[in-house]
Amino acid sequence: MKARYPGLQPHLNLKTRYEEITDVLSYFNTLNEKDKAFLAAFVEEEINANMNHSGKKINKSKAAKKKCYDRNNARNRCIYTRAKASHNAIPFSHLTEGDTSKDEMDDVIDKLDRKYNYLSWESDEES
Fold this sequence. Notes:
Elements: H1 18-28, H2 33-46, H3 62-77, H4 79-85, H5 92-96, H6 104-126
């Protein structure tokens, strides 16, 4: 059995495209049938980079098609997107938390290092 709009069904697409497709699906059911067909063709070309779909072709020039392919290739190269697709991504919230392995003495040493480097830089200019 063939799906009606396969480009709009996340389970029929790559996991790297999941977020973009679910964004579109959030308002897909509010559209009329003509708009649904256009959106399905748009997703096939812009997100899936599939120019051989059964709907109306949107990107007809070589330059427009190349942009679609380039976006798709960039998404496939993206380390964070690939990590999310394989469930190995680290949430950004973990990156903003303080580093508990660092103590106050490290801060003092860093300040002294910066001060020493600044002072030595000034004395080099005077010579």
